[in-house]
Amino acid sequence: MPTTHNFAEGQLLPPICAIFRRFLKRQGLKFTTERARILDAVLKQEGVFEADQLLNQMRAEGHRVSKATIYRTLKHLQESKIISEVLLDSKYAHYELTFGKPAQGHLVCVETGRVVEIPSPWLESVRDQICRKHGFEPVSHRFVIYGISPEAKARDREEDAADNE
Question: Is residue 144 predicted with pLDDT exceeding 90?
């Protein structure tokens, strides 16, 4: 079930915008209209998204934005810890808003590509124990389970039944 963000009340939008502005300023970069629009589009995403998906949505809304600008801005958003890259497959980079959200894992169907966000507060505890044991300071973690969804299994059964007729 996708996570929804309640930005209508302005709870996280101003802090995220301020964090991104400060990050860009420290890098000697400007907070341009294009970057502001991309940040706004990212904040509207529910769950995991791809750069091309973001690009297509922005263009559908009438925004002129290049693929290169999308990728550069996503990189800056990652560096500023507003979004994180989620490694779901080796074909495409996937991203999700992580600022102000507890750590979570992902369940990925290897047949359909369906992604389910799974809350994983216990993972932080396990991560911290492992780090303490080895003298590490935790910075972040990723947790992804690959499997076959019930929908994919049902589809496979239907295909097998059709092949046997």
Answer: no
DSSP line for the chain? ------TTTTSSHHHHHHHHHHHHHHTT----HHHHHHHHHHHH--S-EEHHHHHHHHHHTT----HHHHHHHHHHHHHTTSEEEE---SSS-EEEE-TTS--EEEEEETTT--EEEEE-HHHHHHHHHHHHHHT--------EEEE--HHHHHHHHHHHHHHT-
d(CA 18, CA 134) in angstroms, rounded, equals: 36
115 φ, ψ (degrees, to nearest 5): -120, 130
Q: What is the pLDDT of residues 53-77, one digit of tens each?
A: 999 999 999 999 999 999 999 999 9
- CA pair distance 18, 16, nearest whole angstrom: 5
Tally of CB atoms within 10 A around 41: 19
Confidence (pTM):
0.63
State the amino acid at position 144 in one-letter form: V
Report the distance separating Cα 23 and Cα 44, nearest Å: 21
* Domains parsed from the chain with CATH numbers: 1-100 (1.10.10.10), 102-165 (3.30.1490.190)
Tens of pLDDT, residues 150-163: 888 888 888 888 88
